[in-house]
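Predict the 3D structure for this chain.
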Amino acid sequence: MVKQKLPLILASLILITITCSAIAVGQNWNMINYDDSMSRHSNQTQIGKDNINQLEVKWILNTGSVIENSPLIVGKTGYVQNNKYQVIALDMDTGLNKWKYDVNVTSPQPAHGVAYDNGVIYAPTGPNGTVIALNAENGKKIWESSALQPVGGSFVLTSPPLVWKDYLILGSAFGDVVLEGPAPNKGTVTALNKNTGKIVWQTYTAVGDWVEGENASVNGGATVWTGGAIDTDKGVVYLPCGNPAPDFDASSRPGENQYANNVIAINIKTGKILWATPLIETGTVLNVTIPDTHDWDTCWGTNLVTINSSKSSEKIVIGHNKRGDIMAMNSTTGKPVWWTNVAYLYRTDVPAMPNGSGPVWPSVSGGVMSYSAFDENNLYVAVSNQGSNFFSRPGEGHVEPAFDSMTNGIGNGSVAALDLKTGEVRWEHKTEFPTWVSPLVTNGIIFSGTTTAVGNKETGVMYPFNDYGVPFETPLITSGILRAYDAETGEELWEFNVGAPIGIGGPSIGNGMLLVPTGNTGEVANPRGYIVAFGLLEK
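Done. Predicted structure below.
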């Protein structure tokens, strides 16, 4: 294993296709997860196992705010959106900024990225609630939509745009975080005309008695905030819906909390929900039926995969959640094909309680808390393990880290490969710290990473945290370790300390360059906001 360090001065659904043709997008990286099936699988060949130890830093661009999504690569130009919702274009050779479009948001929020299509960049505007279309060459605005929901409350538009024909599809976010007003927002999925920005349809994803009548004033959630995979032949998008809100108290949420914690299939032309499959509130997952009071929402995208055999061909959709459940579903019916769990599970049957649940694993930031990747054979997932104590109060609650159960103050993790046909774990590489970095697979290599400790028993100081157990000040300065693994065996091949936590959306690759975003305010302190560009040594 080759180790390198940055100089001090720089101090959850997948559409899987086993056939190679489904991932032949080329050297560009046009979407946050590379292609319509969200494979995060680039067929570039410049960087591989035979020269991984020749990677070096080519340039670093500091954008001034956290970056939580994979930069796009289109020829010699890169595009990225930071948590100020600024869209930035950069020269791939030098890292110098070409143009920047600033939507002037009043408060930074997690931004999950932009999309490129035929010379246009499409981007959400976060708390402004609109979508913008920008000329990719010069950054000039082509159009801006109306707000997709009334601005204010807990509505924030973080979802990366998905493009199919003349449609843009976006979800909403922050249904469980009440920024203003008395109640969480109800999740929606909205389709826009990509040429005009006009709304074509809008579908609610929080549906039923639990969000109607008196319940409408206290309940919400089921938001779709990270995008999903598209079946371009059928015109169907597969999306993960988040947890119901209030997060840690189910007393105001009677009956089935539809469509919270589900993977849903939507007809892109009509907005009709074709099927919905629950990943948490169901006896089919780990044989446990309890209301979600742990914020274990189904999140971080989907994958669409085509499984070919000598007799038939079947498309499956893969989704996952923050409890570590991974489920493959028939793409036409939503019926489960296989499921497994990859997280450390402890007392998962104990709900949040007024005086605390006691240690429960995973935490609200645990399980599969990032996108996944796949190639012709395997699904690759990054796993984060933490313990938390869950407290419920009428209409709300909070989480406290289970400090006594975590020697390094933050937990541990793993990177694993699962057989696409069966869900069987083929290999697992355990890590000392949580991952929180979406894997990338390319040319026989898996890129992922970890975030270092925020505190430990030896420091004698426990870090301050917010209502979700997230540290906002720590005894230690956190960093991010980028790692490369052999896709076939899981053997670690290379690592590099990039000086700050790696963006949860993970790196992108193309045209001989590996782009690594940094910053993650959702999990740790030391936000940063760089892009670190790697390329091969020049001979």
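The chain has one domain: 2-536.
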